[in-house]
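re: that chain from earlier
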Amino acid sequence: MSTDTPSPEDVTPEAEATEEVAPVEETPTPEEELQAATPEAPADEPVAASEPAAEAVTEEASAGNDEAASDLPELTLGDGAPAEAEEVAAPLIVRGKIDRFGVAMGTGRRKTSVARVRIKDGNGEFIVNGKPFEEFFCVERDRKMVQEALTMTEMRDKVDVWVRVNGGGTTGQTGAVILGVARALQVKDPSLHHVLASGGYLTRDDRMVERKKYGRRKARRGFQFSKR
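^ sequence. v structure.
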């Protein structure tokens, strides 16, 4: 009895190849496709495309930090204060003038007295209302006070002083002459300003006699009361 099953000897290589099961192809995932499409850079060489982007990001960050820092107020302590914070020196005020002959003129006032002073280069002559100041000011204290500004600035024997004063009494006229002499010296030589100001000769004494009030004998003195 015969069978159709071929013997092992009768099987050819082509038949064996046809009978082998074909391998099943695996479908790649999207991530694998993306990696396959992107060319790999050598490990030794840095990625050139990423350098400009990194530099741009760094520049933008530094620019943003600079803008933020400029918006903030500048804080300084001690000697490191900016120049704008330094105090501005007050302008020098000169109350006087020099005429076309080079004579320095200054006006002084005290109470109701007014003194007009003229100073020019000379040998120390001091005239008040046409008289030597020793004759016009009879009190030694007044003569000393009138010459203090000239003595402090070392101009007593270098200039001639001419004064015309009127109004008030002896005390008021003395104060007016002192202020007038100091102002004339200041306009003649501005470098003497600090010496005169430190001595108080450029400051006017604004004290005045208090006015009399109604119903009183003087400014505050009342009438004497009598019981009988």
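The two ends are 186 Å apart (CA to CA).
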